[in-house]
User: What shape does this take?
Amino acid sequence: MTVSLAANSLSSVKLLNLDHVAIAVHDLDAVLAGYRSRYNVEPLYRETIEEQGVEEAMIPVGGSFVQLLQPLGPETSVGKFLSKNGEGLHHVAYAVASIDEALEHLEADGARLIDREPRSGGRGTRIAFVHPGDLGGTLIELVELGDG
Assistant: This one.
């Protein structure tokens, strides 16, 4: 009975896939060289996202990605994260069918949202963040994939 209720309450926010695990780094080129050397992988995407203050590289792993994030400056959110925590896990991102429906559901459920409106992400995605203090102590990103 509890399982059925939980499933119904999450119907508009169903997590479709683990989209990516993000790792904050000081030197993107150096870390990419290490991934190439040690794990024989190449990024599928690499781009600068000014709005978020990062340069990112997306390394495909199965049906998901490892996202390496280098801040564009110390005042960006990733820059502040690095100065406080050092390099390491920054957030976990889940794919959702509709970011608008997911945000509406989460807000109605009392989730602690960082973004109440979606913003543009890499790869033509729409994204939004849920505060790490909301659930389990980890920053969560919701990702709605674009058309292309």
Residues 1-10 have pLDDT under 50 and may be disordered. Strands lie at 17-24, 45-49, 54-61, 64-71, 88-95, 119-120, 126-130, 140-144.
